[in-house]
Amino acid sequence: MSEAPSKSGPPRRRGPRRARKGSGHRAAQTVKSVPVASPAQAQPQKDRPPQRPVTTDASPLYAALDLGTNNCRLMIAAWHNGQFRIVEAFSRIVRLGEGLSQTGNLSDRAMERALAALKLCAEKIGRRPVVRTRAVATQACRIAQNGPDFIRRVEKETGLKLTIITPEEEARLSVVGCASLLEGDARAAIVMDVGGGSTEISWLPLGEEAETTGANAPQGLTARGKPPRPQYWISIPKGVVNLAERFPEPPDGDKQAWFAQMVEDVRQSLIDFKAPEPLRPHFDAQQAYIVGTSGAITSLAGMHLKLERYDRSKVDGLWMTHDQCRAVIDRLLGLGQRGREQEPCIGKDRADLVLAGAAILEAVQSLWPCDRLRVADRGLREGLLLSMVKKRPRRRRARRGKST
Predict the structure, then answer these.
(1) Cross-strand bridge partners of residue 391
(2) Phi, psi of 222 (to 5 degrees)
(3) What are the strands, taking DSSP E only, across 27-109?
(4) Is 62 in contact with 36 (CB distance < 8 Å)?
(5) Burial class of residue 251 (count of CB atoms within 10 Å of its CB; 0-12, 13-18, 19+)
(6) Higher confidence at residue 290 or residue 22?
(7) 10 Å Cβ neighbour count for 38?
């Protein structure tokens, strides 16, 4: 994958400026990096006019941007001593894929929403000395007839160079981003990345078979060891946006039956995929678990914990049993859409999507039964960051006195 260097680049060095009296402007605040292992502190910041940051940390900054079918996400992090520390995180629901399954094109309103979020991302990257940016687009831009035109428009209006990545690359990056949540007390794991327009599911061996992959690294965003790679993977064109559009929630009637229809629809997309069968004995012996990364799954976790406000530090890495997941799903079905809108970990933007994500999770758990789910509030962005630092160019020292 090509890596697009940030247009802003490192700022030119200038001498110190003296503050003018009576200017009314404050000096820029020192940017404090936050360890990835404590992600709750990396909440999106309020939009403010661009300003030149003053930093005491010479660590290089990297930016990872993920434009999905439902969300636009940005993470800026500092690389220091083999680990990333979050400097800024941003996420906005844009529903770029809204109506795409019916028309085959990105709608004008959806593109405008996405562009507004991307312009904010470009501003956030531009106000910091980011040395490298990697920006990717996924399923919506992959399948839309006007997807390539939209990518060109994004570059023209924001300066961001988006690359449309393949499903295989998306699955691999999600696994890399979740690597620190893969623990060796089991023999196998599934990493499922539930998106707005597609779901990538990867099967990995763990334990002794995975000791050399670096999958047992301490929780955090490190680049030690070889990144784990899926042994088997599949991408299905089912995500929370298009599944919810295909199965609109009935205003009344049997909500359990409606949910079961979504589950069965996803099951049919997976039931014939037999490649991971060599790992089946580990699931039968309850020596396996699922790592789930998506807004829908983190919302389930927040409801399970009965959080009054979403707290990423309590959600990321949380273990849930299948019975606990099912109890939250039953509660969501009983609330109805208006009730879900009032839930602090769901809100209006996800009220009509969270059960579609839950149906995808339930379908995977029914085909690959395991009692444990590990919730991941991480994934593609973190994988992008690690992919950049793994490919950092080495600086060559200039040779003096070279003969000609």
Answers:
(1) none
(2) -110, 165
(3) 34-35, 61-67, 71-80, 83-93
(4) no
(5) exposed
(6) 290
(7) 14
